[in-house]
């Protein structure tokens, strides 16, 4: 049985998968010493030194050592400790310290550091443990320095600054670390701080050791001082992580998995591995499994796309490139395919990124998507071998071997059930041709029907002539697998399967499926998911693999198809009407009002906007299908032009101003990287102009949208003008939704300008309207904004009350983080405040709310400043790292101010002053003069 010993943390040991009880600290100490000897024999005298140090060992020392060894053998196995001469050695065993050395030697520094589980030899007494602890900690710090040096060298200085600052506080005389911190600060555009670090180190070296900085550190300082001023740091490069979820029941292909893993390691040339095979052979499952295994080798991200090569509409490489370069942080995407491909290769030139290009059509489709950097790797899948893909290693997938197919069946059905009918299970996977998808479908049927025996399903597959003939015929092989399940499901399920194959969209919601299939749609769809004939990417949403969709459509009759498409079209148009009625308080555009179908009801405008944002691709595809179908119902052509404006072709048409205004609002509220403010502003400006000329009530919607977009684009003065106009129109036309939204925005602007009276007036009015309308989320938001005003004016009791009331209203995670943050601010230095800030940080990180994370971190740093300046410095650096990608100078200024004060308290006035001076400059540039004055007061006190 295998033995593993861990010493990089509490001393622990495992035999197989079971952890052993190692007994007393002295017994653990003996095991730790043997593990650290790494196979060498330790004499009894050496073990006595381990146990008793400089003290005189007792007369019973030899007996005590023998007792410890005997007890270790009892719990770890007799071979765990080997007698050799007058001493002992650790038997065959794996140790984390050996793994640490191996990983470090191979350059896998992060993996080496991940082995540490706290302080080495934690809790063990004595001089030996203390000495080994220091020795191991030094080795860890050296590896950590190397890792951070590599990270800074690769441009990840922003991510490293918090850790470097904390390490520098712990090891102020470690010159390699000091030089690394200086280079990271310089790369981040904080050159004055870097110079301050050098001044602090030079003073400490003189005071404590009476020496000057090393030549290497002095040279680093001279290079920084002589360098041209560094521009403001660029936003942190995005690290896409687009791989689909790991496949938990993946089985088989062990040798191929290992070969692919090795083939994808970065080397001297771009690594390309191409998987090919017929549909259902398991290409995607294998590719995703391998990609997760090697993802640690690609720290700059993983890109994924389904190229739809097996379907009728392969993805356009130019569109895929546009999505990829956006994921890599580029906002302005070139128009031409060649320019996009060149830009993509440039972006990856110095990055380590893995590309998983699934379901490719051919080498021509893949060519423009290939990077040129050897540091990257590409894994492709396709039904047809992509000949002509230069440099690619080709892997043609075959069916599973009998054992692997049986393992796959067992993973889905359960071991007990398969072992009870092992011979029948073997016949079943043989009947499925050991094709992974066929095995999965058969297994899913059994898993969904616990009362069925394996033998019963084998009997249902008794027609070998038809089954085997179809399984062995090229592309028809997969169709036979689909037919196997289709022919055996109930008529109701078969009808649902055919109809679910109809839509072109990426997936179908449960309400849309109900209109298409009938009241039992969700039940039937869930049954199809259980049968492996459909997928559910999210609760209440359904889709089909492209080949299953082709299979299902081939079984749709013309009349069935035409009637189904008519139902689906009417559903989407009617729901679109309901969306606008919800947004416009019961009204909708005239064209949509004429739709008589029921559609999916919308509870409020929030639900309506969410539906439009999520369903727009499906809506567009349904309209395109209807327009192209000769047998679509008579009005499809007339109706197809209605949502063209709604879906984005915004034109200054007075007849559609209501719909256009709502689209303008959508563009401003659904940014999330999908619509760039600079691209949306001209369209929204045109809508606002049309609405304004007509004095249409929709003008307040368009003006509010324009104001928000301009704010996002940094055009604050013009934004404020449009928002004020929107507020006046919303008040005049009684548009509560617009009034609450704009009132909150302008109220916050007044708060930041310290016009507390104006802020209170706007926010109290927003609270009143929210309460009247019964909108809990808006009421909570306005209440929290007003609480901020009360914090500034000193009425903390009212601020606490408003914050707790808002927290009690619940809401989504974004609103809850705001409530936690505001409550913590209102509590000041009360003990509860730190806990609330910490809760806010955790929830914000969980929901990738960078701004709230950064704000809560600097507030936490502020709380720790007096009692624990080292912790305050670490938290402030973490806040700065979060703020790098936010382009929010307010947070940056606040974090720099706290960091500067913490560094001064830690005895690093040079760097501390540099931080404070930069904070004052940030606040001055923002026009936040009171904060700038506060920082200058701190600087003046330093003398």
UniProtKB/TrEMBL annotation:
Residues 1-92 form the OmpR/PhoB-type domain. Residues 1-92 bind DNA. Keywords: DNA-binding, Transcription, Transcription regulation. The keyword Transcription regulation applies. Belongs to the AfsR/DnrI/RedD regulatory family. This is Transcriptional regulator AfsR.
């Amino acid at each position: 049985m295998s033995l593993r010993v861990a010493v990089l943390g509490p001393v622990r040991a495992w035999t197989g998968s079971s952890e052993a009880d190692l007994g007393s600290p002295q017994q653990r100490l003996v095991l730790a010493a043997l593990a650290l000897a790494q196979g060498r024999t330790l004499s009894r005298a050496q073990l006595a030194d381990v146990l008793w140090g400089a003290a005189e060992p007792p007369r019973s020392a030899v007996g005590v050592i023998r007792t410890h060894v005997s007890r270790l053998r009892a719990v770890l196995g007799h071979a765990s400790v080997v007698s050799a001469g007058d001493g002992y050695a650790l038997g065959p065993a794996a140790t984390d310290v050996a793994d640490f050395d191996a990983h470090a030697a191979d350059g896998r520094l992060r993996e080496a550091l991940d082995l540490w589980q706290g302080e080495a030899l934690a809790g063990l007494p004595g001089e030996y443990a203390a000495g080994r602890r220091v020795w191991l900690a030094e080795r860890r710090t050296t590896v950590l320095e190397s890792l951070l040096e590599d990270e800074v060298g690769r441009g990840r200085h922003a991510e490293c600054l918090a850790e470097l600052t904390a390490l520098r506080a712990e090891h102020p005389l470690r010159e390699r670390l000091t030089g690394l911190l200086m280079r990271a600060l310089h790369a981040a555009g904080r050159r004055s701080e870097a110079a301050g670090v050098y001044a602090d180190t030079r003073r400490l070296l003189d005071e404590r050791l009476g020496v000057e900085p090393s030549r290497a550190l002095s040279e680093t300082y001279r290079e920084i001082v002589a360098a041209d001023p560094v521009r403001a740091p660029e936003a942190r490069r995005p690290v896409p992580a687009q791989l689909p979820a790991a496949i938990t029941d993946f089985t088989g292909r062990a040798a191929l998995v290992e070969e692919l893993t090795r083939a994808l390691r970065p080397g001297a040339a771009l690594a390309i591995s191409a998987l090919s095979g017929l549909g259902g052979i398991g290409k995607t499952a294998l590719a995703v499994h391998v990609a997760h295994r090697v993802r640690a080798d690609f720290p700059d991200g993983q890109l994924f796309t389904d190229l739809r090569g097996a379907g009728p509409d392969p993805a356009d490489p130019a569109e895929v490139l546009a999505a990829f370069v956006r994921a890599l942080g580029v906002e302005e995407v070139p128009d031409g395919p060649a320019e996009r491909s060149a830009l993509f290769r440039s972006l990856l030139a110095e990055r380590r990124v893995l590309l998983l290009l699934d379901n490719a059509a051919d080498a021509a489709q893949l060519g423009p998507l290939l990077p040129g950097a050897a540091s990257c790797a590409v894994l492709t899948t396709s039904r047809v071998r992509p000949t002509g893909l230069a440099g690619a290693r080709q892997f043609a997938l075959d069916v599973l071997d009998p054992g692997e197919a049986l393992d796959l069946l067992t993973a889905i059905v359960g071991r007990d059930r398969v072992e009870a009918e092992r011979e029948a299970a073997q016949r079943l996977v043989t009947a499925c041709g050991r094709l992974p998808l066929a095995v999965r479908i058969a297994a899913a049927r059994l898993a969904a029907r616990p009362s069925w025996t394996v033998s019963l399903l084998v009997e249902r597959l008794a027609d070998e002539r038809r089954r085997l003939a179809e399984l062995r015929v090229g592309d028809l092989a997969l169709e036979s697998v689909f037919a196997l399940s289709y022919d055996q499901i109930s008529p109701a399920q078969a009808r649902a399967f055919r109809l679910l194959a109809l839509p072109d969209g990426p997936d179908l919601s449960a309400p849309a499926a109900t209109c298409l299939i009938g009241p039992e749609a969700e039940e039937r769809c869930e049954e199809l998911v259980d049968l492996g004939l459909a997928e559910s990417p999210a609760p209440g949403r359904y889709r089909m693999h492209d080949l299953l969709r082709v299979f299902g459509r081939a079984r749709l009759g013309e009349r069935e198809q035409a009637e189904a498409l008519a139902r689906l079209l009417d559903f989407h148009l009617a729901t679109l009407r309901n969306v606008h009625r919800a947004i416009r308080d019961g009204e909708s555009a005239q064209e949509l009002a004429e739709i008589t179908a029921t559609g999916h009801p919308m509870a409020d405008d929030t639900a309506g906007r969410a539906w439009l944002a999520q369903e727009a691709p499906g809506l567009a595809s349904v309209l395109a299908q209807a327009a192209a179908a000769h047998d679509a119902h008579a009005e499809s052509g007339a109706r197809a032009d209605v949502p063209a404006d709604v879906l984005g072709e915004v034109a200054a048409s007075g007849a559609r101003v209501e719909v256009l205004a709502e689209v303008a609002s959508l563009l401003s509220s659904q940014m999330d990287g999908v619509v760039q403010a600079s691209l949306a502003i001209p369209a929204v400006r045109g809508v606002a102009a049309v609405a304004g000329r007509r004095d249409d009530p929709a003008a307040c919607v368009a003006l509010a949208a324009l104001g928000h977009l301009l704010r996002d684009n940094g055009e604050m003065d013009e934004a404020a003008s449009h928002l004020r106009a929107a507020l006046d129109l919303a008040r005049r036309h009684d548009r509560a939704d617009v009034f609450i939204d704009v009132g909150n925005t302008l109220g916050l602007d007044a708060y930041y300008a310290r016009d507390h009276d104006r802020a209170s007036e706007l926010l109290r009015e927003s609270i009143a309207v929210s309460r009247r309308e019964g909108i809990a989320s808006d009421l909570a938001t306005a209440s929290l904004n007003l609480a901020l005003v009360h914090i500034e004016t000193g009425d903390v009791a009212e601020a606490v009350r408003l914050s707790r009331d808002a927290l009690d209203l619940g809401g989504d995670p974004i609103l809850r983080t705001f409530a936690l943050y505001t409550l913590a601010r209102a509590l000041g230095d009360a003990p509860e405040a730190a806990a609330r800030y910490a809760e806010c940080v955790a929830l914000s990180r969980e929901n990738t709310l960078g701004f709230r994370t950064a704000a809560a971190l600097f507030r936490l740093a502020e709380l720790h400043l007096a009692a624990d300046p080292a912790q305050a410095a670490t938290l402030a650096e973490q806040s700065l790292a979060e703020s790098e990608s936010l382009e929010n100078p307010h947070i940056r200024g606040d974090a720099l101010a706290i960091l500067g004060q913490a560094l001064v308290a830690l005895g690093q006035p040079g760097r501390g002053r540099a931080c404070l001076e930069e904070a004052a400059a940030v606040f001055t540039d923002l026009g936040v003069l009171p904060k700038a004055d506060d920082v200058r007061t701190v600087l003046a006190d330093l003398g």
